[in-house]
Amino acid sequence: MNSNQRFNQLEELMANLTRNVDRLSADMEEFKNYAYENNKVVNSILHKLDDHAEQFDKVLERLESRDEQFREEQQLRDAQFEFIMKRFEKLDS
Question: What is the maximum span of the chain, computed from C-alpha positions, in angstroms?
Fold first, then answer.
């Protein structure tokens, strides 16, 4: 193979290499854009999850408060019932 053919072959190899590097650069740019958009979506989802967690915490606090109120009311009703039963026992005696 003469030097002219080698030069042509080297030139063709360099053109292929340049083309492949350009494709790889374009793919990397596309991947970077995808990663950026994907990151925005993930951050949005995480933000919504945080919002929902705060809402669930508030609901749980309200439910716990209502449970405590119900227990207090139940104790009051039990005490009233016991008082009434003792009154009736005294009346029956």
Answer: 131
